[in-house]
Specification:
The protein has about 110 residues and is an all-alpha fold. It is built from five helices and no strands. The chain starts with 16 loop residues before the first helix and ends with a helix.
Length: about 110
């Protein structure tokens, strides 16, 4: 389960999907979205909003992610994107996080389209 000491979720701002698409470019070295997306170095993110963490079948998740027992709501994704290792300690994502709340909102707006 998510760490109780994880940082508070940034406020959910109105995001711009086009800006989120541009911001997602930094994620494409590990993640894919779209109809032909598949897991690679990271899991596919198509349909991630509303999905149980660690549940796609084409990616080998860490025990921490498989056992997180959370649903990827926008609030949970925002907290994870802010500080992945704080939100789910022991996960395999090697990413420092995004401190810009607007960029997180834009990424969420883009992911809602995928």
């Amino acid at each position: 389960m998510a760490n109780a000491a994880a940082p508070a979720a940034p406020p959910i701002l109105k995001g711009n999907a086009e800006a989120g698409k541009a911001a997602f470019r930094k994620c494409t070295s590990c993640h894919q979205v779209g109809p032909s997306a598949r897991g690679g170095f990271g899991p596919k993110l198509t349909g991630v909003i509303g999905r149980k963490a660690g549940s796609t079948t084409d990616y080998k998740y860490s025990a921490a992610m498989k056992n997180a027992n959370i649903i990827w709501t926008e609030q949970n994704l925002a907290r994870f994107l802010q500080a992945p290792s704080d939100f789910i300690p022991g996960n395999n994502m090697r990413f420092w996080g995004i401190g810009n709340a607007q960029q997180v909102a834009d990424l969420l707006a883009y992911l809602r389209t995928q």
